[in-house]
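Why does residue order matter? Because the sequence determines the fold. Keep that principle in mind as you read this record.
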Amino acid sequence: MSLLPRQIRFVDYYLDSLNQSEAYRKAYKVAKEHSYCTDKAVRLMKNPLVKALIESKKKEIANITKEDIHIRLEKLFKDTKKDTTKLKILELQSKLNNLLTDKEMHQTTNIIDYGKLVDSMKSKASNRATQ
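Structure:
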C-alpha cells in the first residue's frame, strides 16, 4: 500500500513548517478548528508509511552539502535582476562561510553596494587563510 497524494503533501508541508496541524490544514485544504486538524495530524504521524517518508526526506535534506548550496546560490545570483535578491544571496553566502557576523553584515548592507560586501567577505577569507 502506498501513500495518497494528500498524505505526501502533508509530509512536504510538515517538513516546511514542522507544524503538524498547519501541514494537515494545508494538505487537506480544511478550515476546521485547530483541535480537529491536530487530531487528524497526530493520527497521520502515526502512519508507518508517513513516518518512513518523513525520515527519508530528512535524510535527503541532510545530504545537501555546502557546495550544493553555493552552486544554487551562484546560479540564482546570475539569473536574478533584483538588487534586493542579489544582496540577500550575498548575505546568505557570507553566513554560509562564516565570513561576516550579523552586525558586520547589517553595517555593510545598509546601502546596496555589492562591491563593498564582496570586498569585506574576501578580506575575512584571506585573513582566515593566513592564520
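The mean pLDDT is 80.
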